[in-house]
Structures are given as structure tokens and as C-alpha cells.
Amino acid sequence: MRDDSSCFISAKSALFLSSLKPVEAEAMAFLEAINWLTEMGYDKAILESDCQDMVEGILANCIANIELGAINRSCKHR
Length: 78
What we know:
The protein is mostly helical. It has helices at residues 22-39, 52-60, 66-76. α1 runs parallel beside α3 (66-76) and α2 (52-60) packs across α3.
């Protein structure tokens, strides 16, 4: 996490043991980041990702995969 001056504040890592497709794993990590920020009391944040398929799916609400769709809907409603 960085502040508005791009200075490092904190970071978090986690291990997920599952057989998710890469885009689903990215979406799950994205949701975990949203949950972590919420737990820390943040109500606004800018999140970045290098997974274009996941970002486009969240922004367009165009979900082809049921599992990914559930994760994306959770991200959109946080």
C-alpha cells in the first residue's frame, strides 16, 4: 500500500491453496485486498492490477465464468 505521495505504508501477502484459473486467482486476490483495506478502515482506495481480463470483467460487469463472476460481483459491491 502507498500513500498519496507514493510512499510505502504496508503490504500483505497470503497463500491460496486451490485449483483456480489464473484470472480467478487474480480476482480472489483483488477481493482479499478490498477486504483488507476495509478492515483497516479505508473507504476509498485506488487499486491496480496487471490482469487485464479481470479488470475488464469488473468494469464491464461482463462475466463469462460462473466462479469468476461471483468473485467479481463481490469486488464490485465492496
